[in-house]
Amino acid sequence: MNLELDHKQVIVTGGSKGIGLAIALNFAREGAKPVLVSRQRSNLDAALAAFAKEGLPAPAIAEIDLSQAGSDRALFNLFPAADILVNNAGAIPGGSIHDIAEDAWRASWELKLFSYINLTRLYLGAMESRGQGVICNIIGMAGAAPRYEYICGSAANGALISFTQGIGAGSVRKGVRVFGINPSPTRSDRIEGVLKQQAASKLGDASRWLEMTQKLPFGRLAEPDEIARLAVHCSSPVCGYLSGTVLHVDGGQQYAPN
């Protein structure tokens, strides 16, 4: 299927690894021109190597820490005419309300919550002025199925779900689509760290973290490509009537018996 993405410029925050890198690679395979945004040059270099390994054109990169004030404007000034924005940056620590100090809570929200809001504000305005564009927010199932042990992330993701639904309902008036994806736990270094924390707490041994995945659908974590392919497909013109929707990708886990 031709997804009609040739030469589309796509900003992917958190684009140097995990779901973000998978999204960028899948866009490039469809002929789009991704821009990888990350705060760590070493991760960007590794991502460039992944593109080269597949024989894909080298993507543009932006070494920017989106948790810092003014970073959203700096990124927008570099790439103001992007056709698609994928908000994906952010890693919120696990733990109960007693485990996360206020400074850590606020710092994680600066990246995961407020970078999504601030970049959407900038790019939405530019897209509306052109009468076209797409914003895809990679959020997380904890927003739809809150967890005591992941309360900081649950609260941020819940806010982003409402944000996406509200913005996406109005953005269509000026030709722009905004939608979201809620992945369940997806294979990455960050999720491995969270599962190790849970294994240490519940099993007394962090090295047993794989046991924490056995009750997941299909007995495994989701794969980055499974989320990425959906994001690319839904961002393409073939899904031109999709906006204001947040898609749950959890293998039915939310409906499974405990």
Task: Note down, in words, how this protein is organized.
It contains seven helices and seven strands. With 258 residues, it is of the alpha/beta class. Helix 5 links the parallel strand 5 and strand 6. It is globular and about 55 Å long. The chain starts with 8 loop residues before the first strand and ends in a 9-residue tail after the last strand. The mean pLDDT is 94.
Count of individual domains: 2
Structural classification:
alpha/beta
Q: Mind telling me the CATH superfamily name of the largest domain?
A: NAD(P)-binding Rossmann-like Domain
Which residues form runs of ≥5 with pLDDT under 50? none
**What proportion of the residues form beta strands (DSSP E)?**
5-15%
Strand line-up across the major sheet = 3-2-1-4-5-6-7
User: What's the CATH topology name of the largest domain?
Assistant: Rossmann fold
The number of distinct helices, counting runs of at least 4 residues, comes to 7
- N-to-C order of helices and strands: EHEHEHEHEHEHHE
Task: Give the assembly state of these chains.
Answer: single chain
The overall strand count is 7
Task: Determine the N-to-C terminus distance.
Answer: 39 Å
CA-based gyration radius: 18 Å
Shape descriptor reads: globular
Share of helical residues: 40-55%
The mean pLDDT is 94
Instruction: Please outline the major beta sheet.
Output: 7 strands, parallel
